[in-house]
Amino acid sequence: MSKERDFLVSLSKRVSHALRHEPWLYELELDQEGWVLVDDLLDALREDQGPWAALKRNDLARMIASADKKRYELEGDRIRALYGHSVPDVLRRTPALPPMTLFHGTSPAAVEIILAEGLKPMRRQHVHLSVDRVTAVQVGKRRAMLPVLLAVQAQVAHTEGVSFYEGNDKVWLADVIPAQFIAVVDDEG
């Protein structure tokens, strides 16, 4: 295989993972038809560095054009996988009572700000929270080799007026999480 072909096959596998299987690891929010903004996908893939550090929209277009099967659709400023999703439901915004505790993995550099100002969506529509520690650490590793694990007192925050939304079996969404509901999880637990 040529270097170009290897690059496009590898890119297709990564895009498939992000759009079909675990969008929450990339902090992507799929709409009800599976669409995501191209810029959001590019930003998420660039954060992984390596061969993706300088990824551009044209690379996605080349990947789609070179494929033997039509797996993706690129339309305007959006992209989606056409089939093969293992995500049970797209990330619906259904207000709901969250689990007692949710988790968020982040970089050590961001912890002080989060503990002072809370969790904010930043460039996303919502704050992404994981239902378990393992998933939160995986997400956090996109930001740092040794991420910091944060615990969110979700039910307490909910009773104080913070809105939570069901995502799927791995992720919950919120608009903003005030700092008083967030704590660093120490190594003991």
From TrEMBL:
SUPFAM superfamilies: ADP-ribosylation (SSF56399). The keyword tRNA processing does not apply. The keyword Transferase applies. GO terms for molecular function: NAD+ poly-ADP-ribosyltransferase activity; tRNA 2'-phosphotransferase activity. InterPro entries: Ptrans_KptA/Tpt1, RNA_2'-PTrans_C, RNA_2'-PTrans_KptA, RNA_2'-PTrans_N. Keywords: NAD, Transferase. Pfam families: PTS_2-RNA (PF01885). GO terms for biological process: tRNA splicing, via endonucleolytic cleavage and ligation. Its EC number is 2.7.1.-. It is an enzyme of class 2 (transferase). Belongs to the KptA/TPT1 family. Removes the 2'-phosphate from RNA via an intermediate in which the phosphate is ADP-ribosylated by NAD followed by a presumed transesterification to release the RNA and generate ADP-ribose 1''-2''-cyclic phosphate (APPR>P). May function as an ADP-ribosylase. This is Probable RNA 2'-phosphotransferase.
